[in-house]
Amino acid sequence: MTPTKRIKLEEDDESPETSSTTSPKKYDNIYFGDNPIVHLKFGAKATLFYVHKGLICDSSPVFRAAFTGGFIESAGSMTLEEEDADIFGHIIQWLYRRKIEEGLGHNYFNELSQLYVLADKYGIVALKNDVMHLLFEAFEKSKSPQADTVAYVYRNTVRGSQLRRFMVAYYVWHTNLDWYIQSSLLDWLERNQEFGAELVLAFALRAKGDPSPFQDRPSFQESCPDKPPS
Question: Whole-number mean pLDDT of the chain?
């Protein structure tokens, strides 16, 4: 039997599949009562999510192209074999609530980074901005990204990524200098050369007198694209 992930809404809300057509719920100009459901299937276990088509298409240009562009997915089903169903579940929750729910694991920075990478892959800019907001909150509570998280970010993002900027800024402005004299650091930097190069540049800018980018949190936010016409 295909395992199914069902995203619980607020206790006084109806689920997507059982919303009343006589009093449709409205969210972000989408009426759930007459909005079709699409299926997203994940991984080898074929974990299945249900989500309103208009909602996911309004939020993601990638899913909009897939479900409305005349591809096979236009029939209402899409398989994403390589994606982590648990991480994608946070995206589905965010689509309905416009906030990232509690429940991320002990490796907070790593899971937020995975969420950012998926949001980036599918063009969900508002979610990327929300992730950056939570990263700043974690930083202000003295949590810190570990080296394995930095390596993951650089494997899965491109130059200019706001998430990369955050990682570099943290290691330039808020990492104990003892980290830089570890005997294993050179080997690690050899495996993560892009991070090392951007680290050197950021240190040079700091030495020149540039202020910490953490003083300008909005600079880590991206402009959200205009919504597609309904």
Answer: 82
Smallest CA-to-CA distance from 23 within 33, 13, 36 is with 33
**Paired tokens of 114:** 């995975």
Strand runs (DSSP E) across the chain, as ranges? 26-27, 30-31, 37-42, 47-52, 77-80
Residue 133: exposed, middle, or buried by beta-carbon count in 10 A (0-12, 13-18, 19+)?
middle
In three-state secondary structure terms, 183 is coil
Q: Burial level of 48, CB count in 10 A (0-12/13-18/19+)? A: middle
**Beta pairing class for 26-27 and 77-80:** unpaired
pLDDT at 163: 96
Contact, 38 vs 67, CB < 8 A?
A: yes
Confirm if 90 and 96 have CB atoms less than 8 A apart. Answer: no
- 43 near 2, Cβ under 8 Å? no
Q: What is the pLDDT of residues 62-82, one digit of tens each?
A: 999 999 988 888 889 999 988
> Of 9-18, 104-113, 158-167, 211-220, which has the strongest mean pLDDT?
158-167
Instruction: Give this prediction's pTM.
Output: 0.80
pLDDT at res. 16: 41
In the three-class reduction of DSSP (H, G, I as helix; E, B as strand; rest coil), residue 146 is classed as coil
Of the candidates 81, 12, 68, the one whose C-alpha atom is nearest the C-alpha of residue 38 is 68
